[in-house]
Amino acid sequence: MGSQLNPYLSFGGDARQAMEFYKTVFGGTLALHTFGDFGRSGTPEADKIMHGTLETPSGFTLMGADTPPGMEHTPGNNFSVSLSGDDDTELRGYWEKLSAGGSVAVPLEKQMWGDVFGMCTDKFGVPWMVNIGEPRG
């Protein structure tokens, strides 16, 4: 799989409804994963969306999630640009360049879902997410 660049939207508790709406607009396949799916069952955010992906017949990919506890949801500033794929060297190179001179919110490291992930804001104020998955074989 090559690297992929797409928008990632953040929501204040209504990610499921928003992503289902976008599916009615664009069509395609929608996959939604809750915080409860990844070890937060029994918490107030258990049914909230930790990660959602809509892949459309036109080749669009739209990702979104509810803002996690401890992070601020600010309408108007509720997007990131997501870089994802399985080429570790390529994606780490992008991470190094994007985070240089900016700020790192989540260090690029192994996460509970098994991928390497990080969040940064570049020196121009653009928020980025980088997710490195295992190569598919």
UniProtKB/TrEMBL annotation:
Family annotation (SUPFAM superfamilies): Glyoxalase/Bleomycin resistance protein/Dihydroxybiphenyl dioxygenase
Annotated ranges, domain Glyoxalase/fosfomycin resistance/dioxygenase: 5-130
Regions that span the bilayer: none
Pfam families per record: Glyoxalase
Highest taxon listed in the record's lineage: Bacteria
Stored Gene3D superfamilies: 2,3-Dihydroxybiphenyl 1,2-Dioxygenase, domain 1 (3.10.180.10)
Name of the molecule in the record: VOC family protein
Organism: Streptomyces ovatisporus
